[in-house]
Specification:
The chain is an alpha/beta fold. 27% of the residues lie in helices and 22% in strands.
Length: 165
């Protein structure tokens, strides 16, 4: 991750057109939660791409049928941490204005994907090991729900103004 270079710049919510969402897909009720956020962002005129993480070896079959959301698991990477999954390659190869990591827990694979994804501005929960990954670090309690983290992230991203060139 340290060798990767990408353009970083401040992008406010109002100026962002392309938004990437990373989240932990492994708990029940996540599809309703993520669809609600996708719909909210799309109502605001954002183009949204999401990638959900399953903290297990394989992606459950029932999850593969959601056309709005991509998924990945531990087996989607080689031993050298190169993406084997088309969903992961498509996600990290696109250029986004904003990337929002909605995981409160520190899943290494999610933070790795956040670190290698090409986004101008990245927001996520504060953790001392991932200070270089995110531009906006949100201090949240470990018991904070993903929905609360999403609300906080979007609230603060709406406050940030894109600087004039």
């Amino acid at each position: 991750m340290k060798r990767l270079e990408y353009s970083r710049r401040v992008v406010g919510y109002q100026n962002a057109q392309y938004v990437a969402l990373l989240y932990d897909a492994g708990t029940d009720g996540k599809s309703e939660f993520i669809n609600k956020i996708i719909n909210s962002l799309e109502r605001d005129g954002k183009s949204v791409l999401t990638l959900g993480y399953f903290n297990q070896k394989r992606i459950p079959e029932e999850a593969k049928h959601n056309e709005k959301v991509g998924f990945f698991s531990k087996n989607c990477f080689s031993l050298l941490m190169r993406p084997k999954s088309e969903a992961v390659r498509n996600f990290i190869d696109q250029q986004y204005d904003l990337l929002i990591d909605l995981t409160v827990q520190t899943h290494y694979m999610v933070k790795f994907v956040a670190g290698i994804t090409k986004a101008y501005y990245k927001a996520g929960a504060h953790h001392p090991d991932y200070l270089s990954v995110f531009d906006l670090l949100l201090q949240v309690d470990p018991q904070t729900s993903d929905a609360e983290l999403a609300d906080h992230a979007i609230h603060y991203l709406k406050i940030i103004k894109t600087p004039e060139k």
